[in-house]
Amino acid sequence: MTYLDHAATTPVLPEVVAAVSEAMSQTGNASSLHSSGRAARRRVEESRESIAEALGARPSEVLFTSGGTESDNLAVAGIFRARRSADPARRRIIAAALEHHAVLDVVDFLVASEGALVTWLEVDDFGRVHADTLAAAIAENPADVAVVTVMWANNEVGTVNPIRELAAVAKGYDIPFHTDAVQALGQLPLDFGLSGADALTVTGHKVGGPTGNGLLLLRRDVAAVPLMLGGGQERGVRSGTLDVAGIVGLAVAVQDAVDHRAERAVALAGLRDDLVAAVTALVPDVVLSGDPGQSLVDGAPSRLPGNAHLRFPGCEGDSLLMLLDANGIECSTGSACTAGVARPSHVLLAMGLDEQTARGALRFSFGHTSTPVDVLAVAEVIPAVVDRARRAALAGSRRR
Ligand SMILES: Cc1ncc(COP(=O)(O)O)c(C=O)c1O
Protein backbone atom coordinates (compact mmCIF):
# COMPACT_ATOMS: atom_id res chain seq x y z
CA MET A 1 0.00 0.00 0.00
CA THR A 2 1.00 3.63 -0.52
CA TYR A 3 0.43 5.26 2.86
CA LEU A 4 -0.36 8.96 2.55
CA ASP A 5 -2.26 9.51 5.79
CA HIS A 6 0.49 10.51 8.23
CA ALA A 7 -1.73 13.28 9.64
CA ALA A 8 -4.04 10.53 10.93
CA THR A 9 -1.27 8.38 12.34
CA THR A 10 2.29 7.41 11.46
CA PRO A 11 4.18 4.11 11.23
CA VAL A 12 5.90 3.49 14.56
CA LEU A 13 9.67 4.03 14.37
CA PRO A 14 11.77 0.87 14.84
CA GLU A 15 13.74 2.65 17.62
CA VAL A 16 10.46 3.27 19.41
CA VAL A 17 9.42 -0.38 19.13
CA ALA A 18 12.80 -1.44 20.57
CA ALA A 19 12.69 1.09 23.42
CA VAL A 20 9.08 0.29 24.35
CA SER A 21 9.63 -3.45 24.28
CA GLU A 22 12.77 -3.17 26.41
CA ALA A 23 10.96 -0.95 28.93
CA MET A 24 7.91 -3.24 28.96
CA SER A 25 10.05 -6.13 30.06
CA GLN A 26 10.85 -4.26 33.29
CA THR A 27 8.45 -4.38 36.24
CA GLY A 28 7.86 -1.35 38.42
CA ASN A 29 5.32 1.30 39.28
CA ALA A 30 7.01 4.69 39.04
CA SER A 31 5.34 5.67 42.34
CA SER A 32 6.68 2.67 44.30
CA LEU A 33 9.53 3.27 46.70
CA HIS A 34 11.44 0.00 46.23
CA SER A 35 14.26 -0.52 43.74
CA SER A 36 12.05 -1.54 40.79
CA GLY A 37 9.82 1.45 41.41
CA ARG A 38 12.78 3.79 41.60
CA ALA A 39 14.17 2.36 38.35
CA ALA A 40 10.80 2.95 36.67
CA ARG A 41 10.72 6.50 38.05
CA ARG A 42 14.22 7.08 36.66
CA ARG A 43 13.05 6.07 33.16
CA VAL A 44 10.09 8.41 33.40
CA GLU A 45 12.16 11.34 34.64
CA GLU A 46 14.87 10.82 32.02
CA SER A 47 12.15 10.82 29.37
CA ARG A 48 10.60 13.95 30.86
CA GLU A 49 13.95 15.73 30.79
CA SER A 50 14.72 14.79 27.21
CA ILE A 51 11.23 15.83 26.04
CA ALA A 52 11.47 19.13 27.93
CA GLU A 53 14.82 19.89 26.37
CA ALA A 54 13.60 18.98 22.88
CA LEU A 55 10.50 21.17 23.18
CA GLY A 56 11.97 24.21 24.93
CA ALA A 57 10.18 23.50 28.21
CA ARG A 58 11.13 22.83 31.81
CA PRO A 59 10.84 19.22 32.99
CA SER A 60 8.26 20.28 35.59
CA GLU A 61 6.07 21.64 32.79
CA VAL A 62 5.71 18.20 31.14
CA LEU A 63 2.53 16.31 32.10
CA PHE A 64 2.13 12.85 30.59
CA THR A 65 -1.36 12.00 29.27
CA SER A 66 -3.04 9.45 27.02
CA GLY A 67 -2.67 11.65 23.93
CA GLY A 68 -3.89 14.72 22.11
CA THR A 69 -7.56 14.36 22.98
CA GLU A 70 -6.91 14.15 26.71
CA SER A 71 -4.38 16.99 26.66
CA ASP A 72 -6.79 19.26 24.74
CA ASN A 73 -9.64 18.38 27.13
CA LEU A 74 -7.44 18.92 30.18
CA ALA A 75 -6.13 22.26 28.96
CA VAL A 76 -9.46 23.72 27.90
CA ALA A 77 -11.75 22.36 30.64
CA GLY A 78 -9.08 22.34 33.36
CA ILE A 79 -7.96 25.93 32.84
CA PHE A 80 -11.55 27.12 32.30
CA ARG A 81 -12.66 25.56 35.61
CA ALA A 82 -9.66 26.86 37.57
CA ARG A 83 -10.03 30.41 36.26
CA ARG A 84 -13.77 30.43 36.76
CA SER A 85 -13.55 29.17 40.32
CA ALA A 86 -10.99 31.90 41.08
CA ASP A 87 -13.37 34.51 39.57
CA PRO A 88 -16.93 33.53 38.55
CA ALA A 89 -17.02 36.40 36.03
CA ARG A 90 -14.54 34.50 33.88
CA ARG A 91 -16.80 32.27 31.86
CA ARG A 92 -15.86 32.95 28.24
CA ILE A 93 -13.76 30.64 26.09
CA ILE A 94 -12.21 32.04 22.92
CA ALA A 95 -11.45 29.35 20.36
CA ALA A 96 -10.74 29.12 16.64
CA ALA A 97 -13.67 27.92 14.55
CA LEU A 98 -11.59 25.19 12.91
CA GLU A 99 -10.11 23.47 15.94
CA HIS A 100 -9.96 19.68 16.13
CA HIS A 101 -13.00 18.03 17.73
CA ALA A 102 -10.89 17.35 20.83
CA VAL A 103 -11.18 21.10 21.46
CA LEU A 104 -14.51 21.91 19.75
CA ASP A 105 -16.49 19.27 21.59
CA VAL A 106 -15.13 20.12 25.03
CA VAL A 107 -16.00 23.78 24.42
CA ASP A 108 -19.53 22.77 23.36
CA PHE A 109 -19.79 20.60 26.48
CA LEU A 110 -18.74 23.45 28.78
CA VAL A 111 -21.28 25.75 27.11
CA ALA A 112 -24.09 23.21 27.41
CA SER A 113 -23.32 21.97 30.95
CA GLU A 114 -21.35 24.58 32.83
CA GLY A 115 -22.66 27.90 31.60
CA ALA A 116 -19.57 28.79 29.58
CA LEU A 117 -19.82 31.41 26.87
CA VAL A 118 -17.86 31.05 23.68
CA THR A 119 -16.44 33.35 21.01
CA TRP A 120 -15.47 31.44 17.88
CA LEU A 121 -12.65 33.23 16.12
CA GLU A 122 -13.14 33.70 12.40
CA VAL A 123 -10.43 32.60 10.03
CA ASP A 124 -9.35 33.93 6.65
CA ASP A 125 -9.74 32.06 3.34
CA PHE A 126 -6.61 30.00 4.13
CA GLY A 127 -7.98 29.03 7.55
CA ARG A 128 -5.67 31.32 9.54
CA VAL A 129 -6.55 33.19 12.74
CA HIS A 130 -5.17 36.73 12.79
CA ALA A 131 -3.88 38.47 15.91
CA ASP A 132 -6.23 41.42 15.45
CA THR A 133 -9.22 39.03 15.33
CA LEU A 134 -8.16 37.67 18.72
CA ALA A 135 -7.46 41.15 20.08
CA ALA A 136 -10.96 42.31 19.05
CA ALA A 137 -12.57 39.23 20.62
CA ILE A 138 -10.79 39.79 23.93
CA ALA A 139 -11.49 43.54 23.87
CA GLU A 140 -15.26 42.84 23.90
CA ASN A 141 -14.81 42.13 27.61
CA PRO A 142 -11.32 41.16 28.81
CA ALA A 143 -12.59 40.49 32.34
CA ASP A 144 -14.84 37.59 31.32
CA VAL A 145 -12.28 35.51 29.39
CA ALA A 146 -11.21 32.27 31.06
CA VAL A 147 -8.97 30.80 28.36
CA VAL A 148 -7.96 31.18 24.71
CA THR A 149 -7.22 28.17 22.52
CA VAL A 150 -5.92 28.26 18.93
CA MET A 151 -4.29 25.30 17.17
CA TRP A 152 -0.69 25.67 15.97
CA ALA A 153 -1.41 24.05 12.61
CA ASN A 154 -4.64 22.70 11.17
CA ASN A 155 -4.90 18.94 10.70
CA GLU A 156 -7.03 19.11 7.55
CA VAL A 157 -5.71 21.93 5.39
CA GLY A 158 -2.30 22.35 7.03
CA THR A 159 -2.53 26.11 7.62
CA VAL A 160 -0.10 27.38 10.28
CA ASN A 161 -1.22 30.02 12.78
CA PRO A 162 0.93 32.89 14.10
CA ILE A 163 1.13 31.36 17.57
CA ARG A 164 3.73 33.75 18.97
CA GLU A 165 1.65 36.77 17.95
CA LEU A 166 -1.58 35.25 19.24
CA ALA A 167 -0.03 34.20 22.56
CA ALA A 168 1.37 37.72 22.98
CA VAL A 169 -2.11 39.20 22.55
CA ALA A 170 -3.52 36.92 25.29
CA LYS A 171 -0.51 37.63 27.52
CA GLY A 172 -1.23 41.36 27.24
CA TYR A 173 -4.41 40.67 29.21
CA ASP A 174 -2.97 37.95 31.47
CA ILE A 175 -5.27 35.37 29.90
CA PRO A 176 -3.92 31.78 29.61
CA PHE A 177 -3.28 30.68 26.03
CA HIS A 178 -3.44 27.02 24.94
CA THR A 179 -2.35 25.67 21.58
CA ASP A 180 -2.92 22.23 20.06
CA ALA A 181 0.47 21.49 18.46
CA VAL A 182 -0.34 17.89 17.52
CA GLN A 183 0.27 18.44 13.79
CA ALA A 184 3.08 20.95 14.25
CA LEU A 185 5.55 18.67 16.03
CA GLY A 186 8.14 17.29 13.64
CA GLN A 187 7.13 19.64 10.81
CA LEU A 188 7.61 23.12 12.31
CA PRO A 189 10.15 24.49 14.78
CA LEU A 190 8.43 24.13 18.14
CA ASP A 191 9.69 25.79 21.30
CA PHE A 192 7.30 26.13 24.23
CA GLY A 193 9.22 28.90 25.98
CA LEU A 194 9.65 30.99 22.84
CA SER A 195 6.05 30.48 21.74
CA GLY A 196 4.70 32.37 24.75
CA ALA A 197 1.92 29.77 25.16
CA ASP A 198 0.87 28.71 28.65
CA ALA A 199 -0.25 25.23 27.63
CA LEU A 200 0.60 23.09 24.59
CA THR A 201 -0.71 19.72 23.40
CA VAL A 202 1.42 17.01 21.77
CA THR A 203 0.68 13.39 20.89
CA GLY A 204 3.11 10.58 20.13
CA HIS A 205 1.42 8.70 17.31
CA LYS A 206 1.74 11.53 14.78
CA VAL A 207 5.54 11.33 14.98
CA GLY A 208 6.28 7.61 14.96
CA GLY A 209 5.55 7.16 18.66
CA PRO A 210 3.12 4.85 20.44
CA THR A 211 -0.62 5.59 20.22
CA GLY A 212 -2.19 6.45 23.57
CA ASN A 213 0.79 8.50 24.78
CA GLY A 214 0.94 12.26 24.70
CA LEU A 215 1.62 15.19 26.90
CA LEU A 216 0.48 18.59 27.94
CA LEU A 217 3.10 21.24 28.52
CA LEU A 218 1.65 23.43 31.26
CA ARG A 219 3.38 26.40 32.82
CA ARG A 220 3.84 26.07 36.58
CA ASP A 221 1.92 29.26 37.30
CA VAL A 222 -1.17 28.17 35.33
CA ALA A 223 -3.74 26.25 37.37
CA ALA A 224 -5.83 23.48 35.83
CA VAL A 225 -8.53 21.46 37.57
CA PRO A 226 -7.85 17.76 36.90
CA LEU A 227 -10.21 15.69 34.76
CA MET A 228 -9.45 12.53 36.75
CA LEU A 229 -9.01 12.10 40.48
CA GLY A 230 -6.86 9.49 42.11
CA GLY A 231 -3.23 9.00 43.03
CA GLY A 232 -2.23 12.60 42.40
CA GLN A 233 0.49 11.83 39.83
CA GLU A 234 1.77 14.54 37.48
CA ARG A 235 1.55 17.56 39.82
CA GLY A 236 -1.88 16.34 40.95
CA VAL A 237 -3.24 17.39 37.56
CA ARG A 238 -3.31 13.96 35.93
CA SER A 239 -3.83 10.99 38.21
CA GLY A 240 -3.16 7.44 37.09
CA THR A 241 -0.24 5.02 37.17
CA LEU A 242 2.28 6.20 34.63
CA ASP A 243 2.74 4.14 31.46
CA VAL A 244 6.51 3.87 31.77
CA ALA A 245 7.10 2.00 28.52
CA GLY A 246 4.82 4.31 26.53
CA ILE A 247 6.52 7.37 28.00
CA VAL A 248 9.95 5.97 27.09
CA GLY A 249 8.69 5.41 23.51
CA LEU A 250 7.17 8.89 23.39
CA ALA A 251 10.50 10.43 24.39
CA VAL A 252 12.32 8.54 21.61
CA ALA A 253 9.73 9.68 19.05
CA VAL A 254 9.80 13.33 20.18
CA GLN A 255 13.60 13.35 20.02
CA ASP A 256 13.52 11.87 16.52
CA ALA A 257 10.90 14.40 15.38
CA VAL A 258 12.96 17.33 16.64
CA ASP A 259 16.36 15.99 15.50
CA HIS A 260 15.17 15.33 11.94
CA ARG A 261 12.64 18.15 11.59
CA ALA A 262 14.66 20.52 9.42
CA GLU A 263 15.76 18.05 6.75
CA ARG A 264 12.45 16.18 6.84
CA ALA A 265 10.48 19.41 6.37
CA VAL A 266 12.43 20.14 3.17
CA ALA A 267 11.89 16.60 1.88
CA LEU A 268 8.18 16.58 2.76
CA ALA A 269 7.58 19.98 1.15
CA GLY A 270 9.29 18.68 -2.00
CA LEU A 271 7.05 15.62 -2.12
CA ARG A 272 3.95 17.72 -1.43
CA ASP A 273 4.79 20.18 -4.21
CA ASP A 274 5.54 17.33 -6.64
CA LEU A 275 2.21 15.71 -5.81
CA VAL A 276 0.26 18.95 -6.28
CA ALA A 277 2.06 19.62 -9.58
CA ALA A 278 1.52 16.06 -10.85
CA VAL A 279 -2.18 15.99 -9.96
CA THR A 280 -2.74 19.48 -11.39
CA ALA A 281 -1.15 18.42 -14.68
CA LEU A 282 -3.45 15.40 -14.89
CA VAL A 283 -6.66 16.90 -13.43
CA PRO A 284 -6.45 20.61 -14.36
CA ASP A 285 -9.51 21.77 -12.37
CA VAL A 286 -8.19 20.43 -9.04
CA VAL A 287 -7.93 23.12 -6.31
CA LEU A 288 -5.38 23.25 -3.48
CA SER A 289 -7.12 24.37 -0.27
CA GLY A 290 -5.42 26.43 2.40
CA ASP A 291 -2.23 28.42 2.26
CA PRO A 292 -0.16 28.05 -0.93
CA GLY A 293 2.86 27.75 1.35
CA GLN A 294 5.08 30.43 -0.14
CA SER A 295 5.32 32.68 2.90
CA LEU A 296 6.40 32.47 6.53
CA VAL A 297 4.45 32.66 9.76
CA ASP A 298 6.45 33.40 12.93
CA GLY A 299 9.55 32.56 10.84
CA ALA A 300 8.28 29.08 9.86
CA PRO A 301 6.51 27.77 6.72
CA SER A 302 2.95 29.04 6.45
CA ARG A 303 1.67 25.56 5.52
CA LEU A 304 2.59 22.20 7.01
CA PRO A 305 5.27 20.75 4.70
CA GLY A 306 3.59 17.32 4.60
CA ASN A 307 0.04 18.45 3.83
CA ALA A 308 -1.63 18.51 0.41
CA HIS A 309 -5.36 19.15 0.64
CA LEU A 310 -7.01 18.95 -2.77
CA ARG A 311 -10.56 19.53 -3.92
CA PHE A 312 -11.87 17.74 -7.00
CA PRO A 313 -14.96 19.55 -8.33
CA GLY A 314 -17.88 17.28 -9.21
CA CYS A 315 -16.65 14.39 -7.02
CA GLU A 316 -17.59 13.02 -3.61
CA GLY A 317 -14.56 12.75 -1.31
CA ASP A 318 -15.69 9.38 0.01
CA SER A 319 -15.87 7.78 -3.42
CA LEU A 320 -12.43 9.18 -4.33
CA LEU A 321 -11.06 7.75 -1.09
CA MET A 322 -12.53 4.29 -1.68
CA LEU A 323 -11.43 4.19 -5.33
CA LEU A 324 -7.89 5.20 -4.35
CA ASP A 325 -7.91 2.59 -1.60
CA ALA A 326 -8.92 -0.04 -4.15
CA ASN A 327 -5.85 1.08 -6.12
CA GLY A 328 -3.54 0.68 -3.13
CA ILE A 329 -3.42 4.32 -2.01
CA GLU A 330 -4.47 5.33 1.49
CA CYS A 331 -5.40 8.93 2.21
CA SER A 332 -8.23 10.78 3.94
CA THR A 333 -11.18 12.99 3.10
CA GLY A 334 -10.46 15.06 6.16
CA SER A 335 -14.19 15.35 6.75
CA ALA A 336 -15.94 13.88 9.74
CA CYS A 337 -18.11 10.87 9.10
CA THR A 338 -20.46 10.33 12.00
CA ALA A 339 -22.53 7.14 12.12
CA GLY A 340 -21.93 6.55 8.43
CA VAL A 341 -23.28 9.95 7.36
CA ALA A 342 -20.67 11.94 5.48
CA ARG A 343 -20.77 15.64 6.36
CA PRO A 344 -18.74 18.40 4.80
CA SER A 345 -15.79 19.36 6.96
CA HIS A 346 -16.35 22.11 9.56
CA VAL A 347 -12.86 23.34 8.67
CA LEU A 348 -13.74 23.99 5.03
CA LEU A 349 -17.08 25.55 5.99
CA ALA A 350 -15.27 27.86 8.48
CA MET A 351 -12.99 28.88 5.60
CA GLY A 352 -16.05 30.11 3.72
CA LEU A 353 -16.62 27.21 1.30
CA ASP A 354 -20.17 26.09 0.61
CA GLU A 355 -21.24 22.50 1.30
CA GLN A 356 -21.12 21.46 -2.34
CA THR A 357 -17.59 22.83 -2.89
CA ALA A 358 -16.41 21.28 0.36
CA ARG A 359 -17.46 17.80 -0.71
CA GLY A 360 -14.88 16.48 -3.13
CA ALA A 361 -11.91 16.95 -0.81
CA LEU A 362 -8.95 14.67 -0.20
CA ARG A 363 -6.04 15.10 2.20
CA PHE A 364 -2.74 13.50 1.28
CA SER A 365 -0.28 13.73 4.16
CA PHE A 366 3.39 12.80 3.96
CA GLY A 367 5.62 11.68 6.81
CA HIS A 368 8.82 9.93 7.78
CA THR A 369 8.30 6.90 5.52
CA SER A 370 7.24 8.84 2.40
CA THR A 371 9.25 8.71 -0.83
CA PRO A 372 8.91 9.96 -4.44
CA VAL A 373 7.49 6.53 -5.36
CA ASP A 374 4.35 7.51 -3.41
CA VAL A 375 3.83 10.53 -5.67
CA LEU A 376 4.25 8.39 -8.79
CA ALA A 377 1.72 5.89 -7.45
CA VAL A 378 -0.93 8.62 -7.05
CA ALA A 379 -0.15 10.14 -10.46
CA GLU A 380 -0.59 6.76 -12.12
CA VAL A 381 -4.15 6.24 -10.97
CA ILE A 382 -5.62 9.68 -10.26
CA PRO A 383 -7.07 10.50 -13.74
CA ALA A 384 -9.07 7.27 -13.91
CA VAL A 385 -10.14 7.54 -10.26
CA VAL A 386 -11.39 11.11 -10.69
CA ASP A 387 -13.16 10.22 -13.91
CA ARG A 388 -14.94 7.33 -12.24
CA ALA A 389 -15.86 9.36 -9.14
CA ARG A 390 -17.29 12.10 -11.39
CA ARG A 391 -19.42 9.65 -13.32
CA ALA A 392 -20.68 8.12 -10.06
CA ALA A 393 -21.57 11.56 -8.65
CA LEU A 394 -23.38 12.49 -11.88
CA ALA A 395 -25.35 9.23 -11.90
CA GLY A 396 -26.21 9.78 -8.21
CA SER A 397 -27.51 13.29 -8.82
CA ARG A 398 -29.62 12.09 -11.79
CA ARG A 399 -31.18 9.41 -9.56
CA ARG A 400 -32.04 12.08 -6.97
C1 LIG B 1 -4.94 18.65 15.65
C2 LIG B 1 -5.25 17.42 16.44
N1 LIG B 1 -5.57 17.52 17.73
C3 LIG B 1 -5.84 16.45 18.50
C4 LIG B 1 -5.82 15.19 17.96
C5 LIG B 1 -6.14 14.02 18.85
O1 LIG B 1 -4.97 13.35 19.24
P1 LIG B 1 -5.05 11.83 19.77
O2 LIG B 1 -5.37 10.98 18.57
O3 LIG B 1 -3.70 11.56 20.32
O4 LIG B 1 -6.10 11.77 20.81
C6 LIG B 1 -5.50 15.01 16.60
C7 LIG B 1 -5.51 13.67 15.99
O5 LIG B 1 -6.12 13.44 14.97
C8 LIG B 1 -5.21 16.15 15.83
O6 LIG B 1 -4.90 16.07 14.52
Give a structural overview.
This protein has 400 residues and is α/β, with parallel strands linked by helices. Helix content is 44%, strand content 14%. The strands form five sheets. Strands 2-8-7-6-5-3-4 form a seven-stranded mixed beta sheet, sandwiched between helices. It is globular and about 65 Å long. The mean pLDDT is 96. The protein binds pyridoxal-5'-phosphate. Residues 67-69, 72, 100, 102, 151, 155, 180, 182-183, 203, 205, 214 line the site of pyridoxal-5'-phosphate.
In short:
The chain is of the alpha/beta class and 400 residues long.
Topology, pairings included?
Layout: E1 2-3, H1 14-24, H2 35-55, E2 62-65, H3 68-86, E3 92-96, H4 101-114, E4 117-121, H5 131-139, E5 145-149, H6 163-172, E6 177-180, H7 192-195, E7 199-203, E8 214-218, H8 244-259, H9 261-282, E9 287-288, E10 296-297, E11 300-301, E12 307-311, H10 317-326, E13 329-330, E14 337-338, E15 341-342, H11 346-350, H12 355-359, E16 361-365, H13 372-399
Parallel strand pairs: 1-13, 3-4, 3-5, 5-6, 6-7
Antiparallel strand pairs: 2-8, 7-8, 9-12, 10-11, 12-16, 14-15
Helix pairs in contact: 1-8, 2-8, 3-4, 5-6, 9-13, 10-13
